[in-house]
């Protein structure tokens, strides 16, 4: 079972089935919505997604037919939904468990942040240095 939640814990979810490949989206709306260089996402079939605390969600139609859902208390992005689809677009920053799926690609690099280069290799640290 894959689980996740918002920062304040008022919203939790479980995924009972698998999820699609992970992609890192660099489109302008994802960057602005998440305040980051990109948003890591994967599709989850509606029938496999169970949400608790739905009354704590707020939403915003960020482009025609696409609505983003987030916690109205802490602002954590949980998922997006396009009209007439049978899956959600899960925001992977909200995961609490390992989905055991690997990233497949970066998308919308034509809109990437000027200060971010996905090919750049930077040093890594276990904690803040």
UniProtKB/TrEMBL annotation:
Keyword terms, alphabetized: Lyase, Metal-binding, Zinc
Cited PROSITE patterns: CENP_V_GFA
Occurrences of domain CENP-V/GFA (ranges): 2-117
Pfam families linked to this entry: GFA
SUPFAM superfamilies named in the record: Mss4-like
UniProt GO molecular function: carbon-sulfur lyase activity; metal ion binding
Annotated family: Belongs to the Gfa family.
Name of the protein: CENP-V/GFA domain-containing protein
């Amino acid at each position: 079972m894959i689980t996740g939640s918002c920062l304040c814990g008022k919203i939790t979810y479980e995924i009972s089935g698998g999820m699609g490949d992970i992609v890192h989206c660099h489109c302008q709306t994802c960057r602005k919505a998440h305040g980051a260089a990109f948003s890591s996402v994967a599709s989850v079939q509606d029938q496999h997604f169970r949400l608790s605390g739905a009354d704590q969600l707020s939403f915003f139609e960020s482009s025609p037919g696409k609505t983003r859902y987030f916690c109205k208390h802490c602002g954590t992005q949980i998922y997006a939904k396009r009209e007439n689809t049978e899956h959600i677009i899960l925001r992977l920053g909200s995961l609490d468990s390992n989905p055991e799926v690997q990233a497949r690609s970066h998308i919308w690099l034509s809109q990437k942040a000027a200060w971010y280069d996905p090919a750049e290799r930077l040093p890594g640290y276990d904690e803040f240095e």
